[in-house]
Specification:
Helix content: 25-40%
Distance between the termini: 38 Å
Strand content: 15-25%
Strand order of the largest sheet: 2-1-3-4-5
Number of strands: 11
Number of helices: 8
Length: 234
């Protein structure tokens, strides 16, 4: 396996020994690994080409949980997996991390072999969500320019609301994977304290379908599973 071919991982940890250990081993697994010693500094890093963040809980004013919130509240970072790595094994922290959107958590000291397995598992779940080198997403004739937040269909610019755009990005970063209404609501309306609302999700997806024309039929709703963007619409 050539180093770096499996994508980019960001490690956020102030312990240089742990950073070095993870960098060496994950690099051998085929990932490109970068590191940052501060959760606050990490919150300003461009993650458009990053597949996973492994962050210590960080005993700092801006903690690993704060970094988790920043990432999960941004629909543009929906493709980024997150593993919280901490020496605090209290049930409260674990629950807070998972409720906050963490894909997994690892207790220090950890088994390197187990951590690598967890990394692979999280990345598999987020595998289709990696942005192309040109920072675009595409599906059939539909293209999203993630940098300029522009959506085109066969070269024609589509006029989408902020909510419709966020939903489309989420669906295109999870092609052929079902998303429940609750998951969509959590990602798209993350800046509100509203409880998940099925009707508002359905209404906005209905509007999005109409604006997408024929491609709108590729957004399928299956009872008990949620919404999916797929080529298989039979």
């Amino acid at each position: 396996m050539t180093a770096g071919t499996l994508g980019k991982i960001l490690i956020v940890d102030g312990d240089e020994n742990i950073v070095d250990l993870l960098q060496v081993n994950l690099d051998c697994e085929g990932y490109t690994v970068t590191a940052c010693g501060s959760a606050e500094a990490a919150s300003h890093i461009d993650l458009s080409d990053t597949r996973l963040v492994i962050s210590d809980a960080m005993d700092q004013q801006f903690s690993g949980l704060d970094l988790l919130r920043v990432i999960k509240e941004d629909p543009m970072k929906a493709h980024v997996g997150f593993i919280l790595c901490t020496s605090d094994d209290s049930r409260g922290l674990v629950i807070e991390a998972l409720d906050g959107g963490a894909d997994d958590y690892v207790i220090k000291p950890f088994s390197l072999r187990e951590l690598v397995a967890r990394v692979k598992s999280v990345i598999r779940r987020h595998g289709i969500a990696v942005c192309a080198p040109g920072k675009t997403l595409s599906f059939k004739s539909l293209v999203i320019d993630l940098v300029n937040r522009k959506v085109t269909d066969d070269g024609m610019i589509l006029s989408l609301s902020k909510t419709e755009y966020a939903i489309l990005v989420l669906l295109m970063k999870n092609i052929d994977s079902y998303l429940t209404r609750a998951e969509i609501h959590k990602h798209v309306w993350s800046d509100t304290d509203d409880t998940p609302n099925d009707r508002i999700v359905d209404t906005n997806i209905s509007r999005l379908r109409k604006k997408l024309g024929e491609i709108g039929s590729n957004i399928v709703n299956r009872l008990g599973f949620g919404y999916i963007l797929t080529n298989d619409i039979n």
